[in-house]
From TrEMBL:
HTH araC/xylS-type domain location: 663-762
Organism: Paenibacillus lignilyticus
Keywords linked to the UniProt accession: DNA-binding, Membrane, Transcription, Transcription regulation, Transmembrane, Transmembrane helix
SUPFAM superfamilies (alphabetical): Homeodomain-like
Entries under InterPro entries matching the protein: Homeodomain-like_sf, HTH_AraC, HTH_AraC-typ_CS, Tscrpt_reg_AraC-type_HTH
Transmembrane annotation, as ranges: 12-36, 293-313
Domain of life: Bacteria
Protein name as it appears in the record: AraC family transcriptional regulator
Transcription keyword on record: yes
Coiled coil segments of this chain: none
DNA-binding recorded as keyword: yes
Pfam families: HTH_18
Amino acid sequence: MRFLNFYRSKKYLQRIILSVTSLIIILVSIFSYIVFQYAQNIIIGIQNESNTKVLSQIQYNIDYMNEVVRNIATSLYFDNDVIPLMTASKPDQVDLLTRRMKIDKFADYTPFIDSIIVYNGQMDKFIWGGNAELQNSADIRYAKLKELLNGQHEVPKMRLFSLKEDVFSIVNYDAFPYKKGKSALFINVKTQWLFENIQIINRLAGQLNENIFIVDELGHSITPHKDAAISAPEIQQIITQLPATEGESGYYRFGSGSKEKMISYMNIHENGWKIISVVPLEMLMGKVERLKTLLILVTSGFLFISILFALWISHRLYRPVGNLLNHVKPLRAVDQEQGQKGDELAYISSEYHRALAQVSKAEKDQISMHNIARQFYLRKLIHDSQTISDIQIQEYIRENELNIGLTGAYLLCIIKIDKSQTFIPIREKKLVYFAISNIAQEIVARKYRCETVEMKQDHLAMLISIEYAGDEMYRELIAELQHVQEVVLRMYHVTFSAAFSEAVDNLEKLSHYYNEALHDFQYKYIFGPGAVIVPGMISVNQRNHEANLPVELEKKLIESIKLNQSELFGKTLDRTFKHISSLHYDYIEYMIMHVLLLMKVAIKEINHNRIHPVSIDLSDTNRKILESETMEESKLVFQAIYEELSDRLNHQEADGRNEVLMDAIKEIIETKYTDVNLSLQEIADAMRMSPTYIGKLFKKWHGQSVAEFINEIRLRYAVQYLEENKYNINDIIDKVGFGNRSIFFRLFKNKFGTTPKEYRISKSIMDN
């Protein structure tokens, strides 16, 4: 019980034992299976070799028998006692009997010959010797011989073939191929003689259970005796499954289960026969089963030893884990924890990670507090340096391990995300500033000692220690900042701008230079997003304190607007903004608003001289200008105002010209409506304009085509004539220009809902 409790509490040990034991069992099982299959294949291979040797000996016996029988057939064919039997047309009966007795004795004295048959072609008669069964003229052999000699089939010459199940036959005749009516000599050999020799060979080879039969060229089987151990249907199945190969020999497995057999075969090319050997696999499997039993016993013993070895090696592997577990917690606590968290390694891992998390948390807390303190003092140093003495500044640097020099020159760099990135949420924006701070710190620190801190006004301040101040140093810093911009853009898809201060020779003046750098950063309005501004880039602006535009520019700007000259306005606006970009930043915004005022004055003067004033909504323009991040954006606002004004001016001019044209067309129609041929084409010809253009423009202005307007004028005058009651209806049709009476009536009824006659009657009644 103690033993079980010990292992029950050691789940990891259980897994080691189970893994090692399973691995050994699998390896041993695979090895045993491979050995067993290999041994089985070896036994079958040995049996096949043995069968092949026996079949080779049988083949030799058959070849020898072939040779002997051929010699006998040749000898008898030319024997003086046999020749008369084949050639005589009317033999003497006594002589015939004497000669037949001689071949009869020859057959009796030769142990393997069953009978000798002479066929006399001239008499069409068989003369036999040997087997007494041939006395019966109705014997089946005679019928088969006659069928063979009838000339319809090829008669094999001097080659053994199967005439009957228990005999082999060989035939000799004059010329090949055999011709019907020719004499022939048949020697019939006992098959039993051959199979008795085969049995002798099997006894010598120790293969008493082997069954051998022969398959002739026609696929017929020749077996040693009728009560053979293998049945005729089974023999037929074996013959059917013989591989169609021309190789000398081979083997395959036939049947299944306890009736499975090993079939070996060998080809006899001379006769076209196959010798078939059938050995029950049960006999072979007996040897395999004995080997299998031995392998099971050996494997079982080895497995028992392997399990003991697995226990020993598992304990050796587990020992370091057990020692570690004892150091982590007392055993009872381990058991309680294991019931909830898994095996020993899981418990040790969880305890390790818990301890690691505690250590990491403590380190993070310490680092966080340290960083907060560093950030606070660095922010205070930049923002309120005038309130800190030089000694205190050096103490701040040493105590907070700031990566800047205690003495020497310094630079301040202001970094701020461009306004085009305002879509970034506040939380993510702080993370982006944190990332920019780390990236800038890492890249710039390769050449300069520096510290970066996030200021409260939504920007970063980088304090850099430098050895000297000069253009070369600024070029290096610009290159470093541009590298930072590339990395940030690639990783976070965010752009930022930066501005460097003048060199600071005393950290007590740092706050003053910080404010100057913030002011210089505003010149990003001129340089655009992603700018890196150094003092040399804005020195001209800093000295320029003018706050006005050249009078010439103001006049040209107003003139280009009033004359609606786009090219002149564009060039003048470019010159105006170029002049503004050279001013001190304090006056740039004022001058931009002054340009807006000039445009408003120009629009007012345009509207003062026009019947129809141009209406431009400028209520939102101030906001757009103030929200512009760059001068280019502000210039686009002015460009948009001008384009809107120009479009409206052009539209009004076009409307005025079109109005005159429409009045002219209507005047022509009013004057010539009585002309039956009046049409759009005639009006266009008179105006020397395209009929398509006039037609589209007229319909756009009046909502109806020229033809519809002509008909409307004619109908108006027709009503007037009807009301006057001076003319009949036909005269009225002619007077108003309708050339077709039916068209007039249809159009009149469509417009007034009644015929002209009914209209006149109803009008007269109403007047009276």
